[in-house]
Amino acid sequence: MKVGVLMGGPSEERDVSLTSGKAVLDACKKLGYDATAFKFKNNYKGLKNALKTKNIIFNALHGGIGENGKIQEWLYSNGIKYTGSDAISSALCMKKANTKSIVRSLGIKTPDWELLENIKDKPTLDFPFVVKPNNQGSTVGLSIVFNDSKIHSAIKEAFKYSNQIMVEKYIDGRELTVPILGSKAYPIVEIEPSNAFYDYDCKYTPGMSKYICPAELDLQLTNAIQRDTELVFNELGCGVYGRADYLIDSSGDHYFLEMNTLPGMTSTSLFPKSVNVGGLSFENLIEKIIELSL
Fold it and tell me: Which of 8, 101, 166, 200 has the fewest CB atoms nearer than 10 Å to its CB?
């Protein structure tokens, strides 16, 4: 089997993509595939002829065009098979507010939110709240705002990465993430970051966060969160694999935050940690993603 691994890209998550891509490439080689790395910064279209020689392209991009449906649409239109969700669901999940609207319509809790289109717009939610770009990942451009003095700088920071930002009610709670592979939710991971929240440094710097998997939750809550994840994954039209993020408040209520259609595959990534507890090695995981995608 000839596998191409697409990595890099122009997004703020380029470095993470290159790390994920290398891990995937190494796993493909261990599996005995004829694997080739395809790195790019901007001109992915120049790779078309080379990509077409492969049986499948493993999409190891993160953020931006790799995750918002643009690459997926282009690959599909050129008859190139690729891993993960299709263009429509990728684009939908990249827009956090759209995802949250669908999730709320399913009767699943998600923190209250509003969208700002202009840097001069003022939030109407009560403090504290989270300010973040509506279409970014890896907590890029995210701030938690507790008082008036921080509003302007938080909004300015978020608008660096998007022309639309989300203001979301802050929930001080336990951070959870739930991987899904095929149509099955895997063991829940609880994240204990060393910073105030699970920011970019905590995500990608070894030792900056503690991970508990499976999370120490009662069985009823575990089942409810996994069931909700499977429901949301299907309702959003996602395919093959993804990862849903949640918060649990002091009352034990769980709140959906977002669905990530291209979870990281680095040494600190949560998806491989979870499926490993569920009985899949990293190589098995990559093989399964490729098989499901084909």
Answer: 101
